[in-house]
Write a structure and sequence with these properties.
This protein is α+β, with helices and mostly antiparallel strands and 394 residues long. 38% of the residues are buried.
Length: 394
């Protein structure tokens, strides 16, 4: 679509953040026709109510946006396209000189000499469930809506938004014209039935570690430590790059994992009629000899996949130990595959004996907002770390 045609569309349309219950209901039912056509309206709307009503604490807000002809934001029949957003807590590195370290938005800093790296809390918006009804397709509505959403996010001040992201399953290039170019997205896929792990050297032997289940009781402790280590890693990487990179990460908060687990419970009980209880959401290695290594997963029964949401390890041996436990969990649930997103290529191959591959669906697309929200200055590209499964879902 030409720039003039896009401008004309935007002139006659508006993007509305809806709070109208009938418009919200229509958006969810439109989503159902594509994402869950086999479910009854009752079950799908109950799941939608759970997803939009989860109490994920301050800073996580679910919004529904509709593209409509101007003045018809409260008319369910006028929806041309729609999109959902979640505001997620994030961190960003800021390289500073010692004399510059006065910004109250920066939480803490580390460094040597005159160079320091500070961290500040930011908001990162997750864009999802982009959908245009069949009768309105091939008219440029979705891309027009996304461009308008990008403008909305750039203008938002309470809270200000630093980055946004989405996942594309309709091709790597679909979202780029609207401002969300795809980044390389990798995955390790293990076939549960016949996978054989390679023997490791004595230096990376996996037999000495004791495993502890991750459950609701200790999830908060595990994630608090993970966040502490993440903060140190971000600062260290930026210092080693002499401040010539800027990193951001979506915080792996326990409340997000709990939200994903709540949706999984609903799906098992109301959609799949599975009575088997979920005993654990992952495992961690005994702290005495396994450090801070852990793995957290989610069950995607309909797709026969155990998706690893987040993992931390220090050695390839630790990684192999965690992956073996994930494969065993998948077997116990009758799943066919274990999928892990964005492991280092060399670690994946050494620990699992197979290589990462480019994802064919769920390509990560990162929307870079053009200006720093503190200074207003133009900003270079930001590297979004931790392109793992936990940033997807809900």
């Amino acid at each position: 679509m030409s720039a003039d045609a896009t401008h004309l569309l935007q002139k006659n349309l508006e993007l509305v953040k809806t709070t109208d219950p009938e418009v919200t209901r229509r958006v969810w039912l439109n989503n159902k026709s594509h994402f869950a056509c086999n479910l009854s309206d009752e079950v799908w709307l109950a799941k939608a109510a759970l997803r939009t009503g989860l109490d994920l604490g301050p800073g996580v807000e679910h919004k529904i946006w509709v593209l409509v002809p101007r003045g018809r934001g409260n008319d369910p029949s006028a929806i041309l396209s729609a999109v959902h957003t979640y505001e997620r807590a994030g961190l960003m590195t800021v390289a500073t000189k010692v004399s510059d370290h006065t910004n109250s938005a920066q939480e803490d800093s580390t460094g040597t000499g005159n160079s320091r790296v500070a961290l500040k809390n930011i908001v990162i918006v997750y864009v999802l469930l982009v959908f245009t009804p069949v009768e309105h397709r091939k008219r440029g509505y979705a891309r027009t809506m996304l461009k308008m959403l990008k403008e909305q996010l750039e203008q938002q001040t309470d809270p200000a938004v630093e980055l946004s992201f989405l996942f594309s399953s309709v091709g790597r290039d679909f979202y780029e014209p609207a401002g969300w170019p795809a980044v390389r997205s990798r995955e390790l896929v293990l076939n549960v039935q016949d996978h054989v792990f390679p023997e490791l050297s004595m230096d990376t032997a996996t037999n000495s570690w004791q495993l502890e289940d991750i459950t609701e009781a200790n999830l908060q402790v595990v994630m608090d430590r993970d966040i502490e280590l993440l903060r140190a890693e971000m600062q260290d990487r930026t210092l080693k790059a002499h401040g010539n990179c800027q990193l951001a990460a979506i915080v792996p908060e326990a409340r997000i994992f709990r939200g994903q687990l709540a949706v999984t419970h609903f799906t098992h009980q109301r959609v799949l009629n599975i009575e088997k209880p979920i005993i654990r959401t992952g495992v961690r290695l005994n702290a005495a000899n396994g450090g801070d290594a852990f793995i957290i997963w989610a069950y995607h029964i309909s797709y026969k996949i155990l998706l690893v949401l987040r993992t931390r390890y220090e050695t390839v041996g630790q990684l192999q130990c965690l992956l073996k436990e994930a494969v065993q969990e998948a077997r116990e649930w009758g799943l066919a595959r274990v999928a892990v997103w964005d492991l280092k290529d060399e670690d994946a191959h050494e620990a699992a004996g197979v290589s990462n591959r480019d994802r064919t669906v769920a390509w990560s697309c990162i929307g870079q907002l053009g200006r720093d929200t503190d200074t207003g200055a133009r900003r270079g590209p930001v590297d979004l770390m931790l392109n793992e499964g936990y940033i997807w879902g809900l």
